[in-house]
Amino acid sequence: MSHSTSVNVFYQKWRLIKDQLIRYGVVAGGLGVIVAILLIFFYLLYVVFPLFLSANVEAHADYSLPEQTLGKTLFMAMEEQNEIAVRFTDQGKSVFFDVKSGKTLLTESFTVPEDVHITSFNPGRFDKGVVIYGLSDGRVLVAKHKYKISYPNDVRKITPILEFPLGNEPVQVAEPGEQLTNVAIRHGEEQTTIIAQTEEKLYVTNFAKEDALFADEDSLRQTESQVELNDPVHFILLDKEQRNVYLLTKAGALTLLDISDKETPQRIEKVNVLKHGDMVTSVEFLTGELSLLIGDSTGLVSQWSIVRDDHNQLNLTRLRQFKVSESSVMVIAPEQRRKGFVTTDILGYVGIYHSTAERKLINQQVRNAAPVAMALSPRANAFLLETESGRVDFWHIDNEHPDVSWSSIWGKVWYESYPKPDYIWQSSSASNDFEPKMSLTPLVFGTLKAAFYAMIVAIPLALMGAIYTAYFMAPEMRQLVKPSIEIMEALPTVILGFLAGLWLAPFVEENLVGMFSFLVVVPVSVILFAYFWRFILPKKYQQRVPEGWDAAVLVPVLIISTLISFAVSPTIETWFFSGNMQIWMSRELGVGYDQRNSLVVGIAMGFAVIPTIFSIAEDAIFSVPKHLTTGSLALGATPWQTMTKVVLLTASPGIFSAVMIGFGRAVGETMIVLMATGNTPVMDLSIFQGMRTLSANIAVEMPESEVDSTHYRVLFLAALVLFMFTFVFNTAAELVRQNLRQKYSSL
Q: Strand 191-197 relative to strand 300-308: parallel, antiparallel, unpaired?
């Protein structure tokens, strides 16, 4: 074997080895991409999955009621660490005991005068720890249970304390000798309001703090007023703002009383909340105290709230109801930090619900006995239940994400203080009483809206430009135009968003009429110039322009027509829109105008998407085999017939891919929509309104969300929705592309 032959054999073997290595490398790279996509999908699913898990309860202790001889329990509460609880009895005693063992830690007595007995009780607001006893002589006793935390020897120690905000002695709130059948209280730093009911009257007593000029301590100014009662009231609730009083009878007659002016209370409305024959068994405020939870004898819990109607009038309206039992609802315990609540019925079944999500998380029998009192932990992770059998059960609750359901994410929800059900995204607030609004519908709507307007701008310009550049333009001019447009894709989108928000949005607002006149003046100018060029201009001047350089002649026409459209816009605005198009639209059409809106996004994001669509489509058109075009022309077809009947059909898979890739770019765009849309999660088809997209929402809120919180996981759910949307849409697009490729491959 000669030397040259051996060298050829060596190179052939080496080439085969390189081919194998490249083949394996390509396969490994493709599989790596697939694995990476699957890992992203499963990680998103892993983070999102806990949102839809149900609650779980577990029994931890069971013991006899502490100090049963000190009276029947009227109210029970538990401190935040789930270590100490307290029960207030009908004998005016408070018993602090260990939650896990039932061991008594402290017993305190209220100063009840001789020949006077306790006739009523109200726990006040759960998270403030204030309770009130009503006495038979028209006086009340007010107390507050607190818990002091210390760390002796680095060990946490919780010490229960009972304070008396209005003093140890009873306070007169009604006529002396009148028996108080019902009481309610709200205690704040600046004022305290007490509602006291006798057989025929309702007394409103307010203690307001007044700054003393010369004394060391502030004084209290007492204001009193009376309201005549027409019906016997069984439940009184006073909201935390000390403005609204709710009076409820056993039969379900609910009266709203406005006590903003403590001296002249006003009746606002009276409604019936139950069917005839049903009875109210329990009523509590939902967290935030904008809604009432009313339990009845049929096992229903209904949520009632004050809603403003179309005439701006306040009405008590039922937002929703829950069928929690087939028996009477005996106790309702609202959560202190979420819009959830726990119920118990007469058979000892405990149910956990969330109002906004309209979600039942659990319904389980704790003990086969009627409940007497329930204490729900401030963190809603444990509860105590006392039953008529004299036993106390201590249960732990695992309920991390109750405020998310499919209906709350995708459906209309009637939120508190809203006039009707709606799609709302508002994930956070400065108040713990806030009702999270986590509907992804307006974000999906905003994503599609932004992509739609961007594609309206990008598709015609990009595809028409690609067709002309690839098929009609001179090669020398194509070598200048194609790289110039493709280099636009390298421009960072944050720069485009910055320019769109700070320059383009104000420019469009000031020249709105000019933007619309541009859409008319420029096309008309091009058509007129084309007519002039084709039929009026002498042939000798036409022939001076080389074939394929026609577009260069249009550049001055485009510039001049654009300047004309903006120059005449002030005159048009004065003649037809009274000098201001935005005000005219608002007055005549009821269409509002936001500075950062869909029009701005369409222009800016369309500018960002055009290079992608143009480059891929132009390559597809330019790559059509020349023998197809020359054959079509040889058979007598015109260039336009060849373009529409041969070139576009052959290049249709590539053109379709260009549009789909551009659409995917528009859907996933973040910085432009973040800076140019106003970032408002509203659902409005108007081109003059903004929006918020899924990607922009994730970018804005993810850095501020608490890890593993509901908000955090819902943002991952938004990412999963965006991922799935892109995956499904691209898969469908690929099927269409393959079908087009197979259909026209025989040309």
A: unpaired
Beta-carbon contacts of 6 under 8 Å, excluding residues fewer than 6 positions away, are none
**Over pLDDT 90: what percentage of the chain?**
43
Q: Is the pTM of this model over 0.90?
A: no
Instruction: Based on the fold, state whether residues 163 and 261 are members of the same structural domain.
Output: yes
Euclidean distance between CA atoms 739 and 745, whole angstroms: 10
- pLDDT tens column, 120-136: 999 877 777 899 999 99
Task: Compute the distance between CA of residue 318 and CA of residue 298 in angstroms, rounded to an integer.
Answer: 17
Q: What percent of the chain has pLDDT over 70?
A: 97
CA 227 – CA 355 distance, rounded (Å): 33
Amino acid, single-letter form, for residue 432: N
Q: Are residues 155 and 27 in the same domain?
A: no
Please work out, in degrees rounded to the nearest 5, the angle formed at the alpha carbon of residue 696 by the alpha carbons of 693 and 702: 125
* Chain segment 562-616, per-residue pLDDT in tens: 999 999 988 888 888 888 888 888 888 888 888 888 899 999 999 999 999 999 9
Q: Nearest Cα to 242, choosing from 95, 124, 403?
A: 124
Sheet strands (E) in 265-390: 266-272, 280-285, 291-296, 300-308, 314-323, 329-334, 340-345, 349-354, 359-365, 371-376, 382-387
Task: Determine, yes or no, domain membership for 666.
Answer: yes
**Is residue 220 included in any domain, yes or no?**
yes
How many Å apart are CA 629 and CA 642, to the nearest integer? 6
Residues 6+ apart with CB under 8 A from 740: 652, 653, 656
- Kindly indicate the confidence band of residue 16, based on its pLDDT and cuts at 50, 70 and 90: confident
Q: For residues 397 and 55, is the Cβ–Cβ distance under 8 A? A: yes
The verdict on 261 and 310 lying in the same domain is no
In this structure, the answer to whether residues 399 and 460 fall within a common structural domain is: no
Beta strands in 388-536 (DSSP E): 391-398, 425-426, 437-438
